[in-house]
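Researcher: Sequence recovery benchmark, item below. Answer with residues only.
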């Protein structure tokens, strides 16, 4: 099918003047609407109004301009059916061979702060999706282009051949339906949030992600993988990070870095987080980021090897010098000084990621569309994110001994960390740094033993945090034997009194939070 006539109506005008000019040079007759027509005419591109096709003016403030049988017929007519051709002739319908349309900026509109429902409604496109879907349905006869990134490719093919092959037309049709499906899902999600409370989950869930890149492989080399991002990622999303150096990110890199960022978001003070296989192996808060990193490294200098480090302050030359001494997969920070980049880029494969939002403590997104998702066979689990704040009146000292002011500070530090450790989880901390982490065990006493073993002599005068209650008194016993001075845990076991009694016997302070932090 030779392209002789095109209709162009775009919200995103990127590259449209150059594309339309190229089409015109090929002798293709152009029709357009409203703002697009003005832009093309101002650039000297020969273009006619759609009103010349329809014989009817744009009405209702532009709400109705392409909803007309002469446009729908020109798009949908099958050129291989004599009856269709006869009806086109009878009703003076001109065939439209190419539709170039993208839709009103609904997603960009609702992303603006303070946007009203009425403002959002006016950005719901009607004629655009109608033309796009019609052309995509009739792809053998009417080609459709919704992506400005395709203009150069389409123009080149038309220059060389004067027409598009079936395979190209079908690919463009697929892209068109993806475009309208994504557009409708954003509208449906927005209106769902308007008519029901955010904490309620909808009967039908609409999710939209766009592919960032294919990955070399997944968790293992025999698994294929890709990375997708939300259409409007939150500021702390790894999808917004700028990679400054190093080889491409892997599936495991992205997963681990995501965990590191989530934990780092708990802290406003200069803090360093080291992560290995999604679990923190070293976390520390200090006066500056240099000291914080040194303390995080010293928390577990074995496990950090080959891990990921996240920092919530810019990386300076001194910190970069220490980071460069060991093998790391990734360093992510708000920014890197020129001197730091000079030092760290000497390591060819070290991935350096700049994520400015790490520089300020902020919560991750809220609401049903910022929930945690977990894919299961044949379904999807969805839940609120675990970002509840621990309030002072929730804390209950249940032992005879009360934590000292210094121990309170350590307990709250450890509590923030244990929330991000896979269950069953035990964290030992001292001097605002982890000294032992027990993660992902099938029983709590084993998690405690691992944490105590990792801490060694550093367990003396440390504090212990547990993500869930103690079913037995064995964890308290093991902790006291290692020199732990205070414990923070949710409480709620039918055997709480046994743990409290053991703590009193061993002269430990123990605090109940009433909040559990399972992480599976």
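Model:
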């Amino acid at each position: 099918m030779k392209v002789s006539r095109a209709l162009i109506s775009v919200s995103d005008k990127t590259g449209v003047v150059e594309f339309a000019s190229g089409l015109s040079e090929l002798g293709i007759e152009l029709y357009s609407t409203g703002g697009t027509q003005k832009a093309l005419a101002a650039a000297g591109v020969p273009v006619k109004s759609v009103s010349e096709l329809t014989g009817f003016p744009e009405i209702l403030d532009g709400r109705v301009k392409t909803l007309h049988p002469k446009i729908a017929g020109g798009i949908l007519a099958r050129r291989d059916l004599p009856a269709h051709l006869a009806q086109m002739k009878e009703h003076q319908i001109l065939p439209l061979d190419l539709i170039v349309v993208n839709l009103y900026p609904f997603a960009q509109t609702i992303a603006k702060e303070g946007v009203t429902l009425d403002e959002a409604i006016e950005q719901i496109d009607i004629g655009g999706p109608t033309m796009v879907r019609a052309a995509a349905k009739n792809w053998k006869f009417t080609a459709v282009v919704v992506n400005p990134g395709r203009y150069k490719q389409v123009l080149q093919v038309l220059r060389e051949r004067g027409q598009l092959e079936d395979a190209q037309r079908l690919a463009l049709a697929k892209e068109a339906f993806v475009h309208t499906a994504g557009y409708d899902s954003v509208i449906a999600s927005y209106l769902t949030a308007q008519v029901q409370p955010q904490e309620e989950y909808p009967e039908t869930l609409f999710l939209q992600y766009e592919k960032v890149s294919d990955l070399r492989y997944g968790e293992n080399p025999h698994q294929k993988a890709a990375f997708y991002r939300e259409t409007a990622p939150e500021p702390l999303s790894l999808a917004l990070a700028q990679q400054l150096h190093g080889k491409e990110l892997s599936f495991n890199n992205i997963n681990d870095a995501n965990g590191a960022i989530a934990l780092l978001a708990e802290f406003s003070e200069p803090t360093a987080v080291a992560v290995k296989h999604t679990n923190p192996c070293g976390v520390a808060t200090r006066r500056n980021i240099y000291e914080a990193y040194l303390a995080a490294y010293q928390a577990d200098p074995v496990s950090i090897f080959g891990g990921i480090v996240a920092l919530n302050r810019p990386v300076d030359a001194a910190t970069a010098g220490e980071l460069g001494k060991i093998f790391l997969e990734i360093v992510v920070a708000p920014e890197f000084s020129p001197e730091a980049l000079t030092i760290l880029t000497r390591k060819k494969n070290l991935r350096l990621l700049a994520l400015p939002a790490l520089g300020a403590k902020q919560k991750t997104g809220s609401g049903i569309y910022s929930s945690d998702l977990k894919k299961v066979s044949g379904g999807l689990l969805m839940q609120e994110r675990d970002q509840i704040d621990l309030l002072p009146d929730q804390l209950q000292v249940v032992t005879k001994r009360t934590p000292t002011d210094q121990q309170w500070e350590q307990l709250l530090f450890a509590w923030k960390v244990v929330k991000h450790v896979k269950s069953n989880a035990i964290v030992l901390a001292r001097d605002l740094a982890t000294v032992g982490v027990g993660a992902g065990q099938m029983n709590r006493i084993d998690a405690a033993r691992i944490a105590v073993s990792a801490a060694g002599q550093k367990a003396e005068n440390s504090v212990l945090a547990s993500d869930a209650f103690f079913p037995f008194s064995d964890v308290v016993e093991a902790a006291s034997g290692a020199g732990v001075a205070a414990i923070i845990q949710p409480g709620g076991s039918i055997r709480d009194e046994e743990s409290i009694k053991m703590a009193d016997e061993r002269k430990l302070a123990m605090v109940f939070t009433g909040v559990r932090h399972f992480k599976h």
